């Protein structure tokens, strides 16, 4: 028995299939990402659960967290296509690699990478596979491009190391990653968070002059929304502290603490018990509540 294969036709079908697959893959990448105008010359880049912002000035771009190589590659190409301006600064929000990987995509002789000194120290010590910042600061710094600026501030411990706020002027857009999240519960068991530090830092941010808030996760909002985020943290923290003082077990608190005022927040039902556990562990580890001889 013999078989005849029309080689040109077979290769033609294969080529068409490969082309369709490539086009589908390109469209899938495009569907994963989007750029939204926040206000004036400040834009938000959305990558599934992560967000960053960038500002388009008269002669350059001030960018923030690259997120990862794939996201940064798409964003760089879109910035080139839409604005055709060089990237002058890339500012890291903190040391967590789910936000600052992909820095190599933006690396050039004319691009400076900026971070708070503790974030840079941690990225260097842990040999993070991204660009290590060449500009650092301790408490505050202003970056300028044309008639625009970004004010960077470090508020102390809150999430990870060297986590900062970024105020884009004159648009009055505030950008903070991880320790302020709008429209959603804080992440599960609050890994790497300093709860009291988050409260202190958010109180500081609320004193700043901004109109619009953009987070590294969650929704865009206003000062009112940031205040609600702060109120939730305070109420959660107070409820767990009261449970500890009464000698309640963690399991008891996870089933009995309810904060219905915040039930409209995304993931309220599934993450509230995890948030409670996170605060409890935070109190045990950072406040040493488990060592207190005066507790029941």
Automatic annotation (TrEMBL):
InterPro entries: Metallo-B-lactamas, NDM-1-like, RibonucZ/Hydroxyglut_hydro
Signal peptide (residue range): 1-30
Molecular-function annotations in GO: hydrolase activity; methyltransferase activity
Enzyme class: hydrolase
Keyword field: Hydrolase, Methyltransferase, Signal, Transferase
EC id: 3.3.2.14
UniProt KW Translocase keyword: no
UniProt record similarity statement: Belongs to the metallo-beta-lactamase superfamily. Class-B beta-lactamase family.
Protein's name in the database: 2,4-dinitroanisole O-demethylase subunit alpha
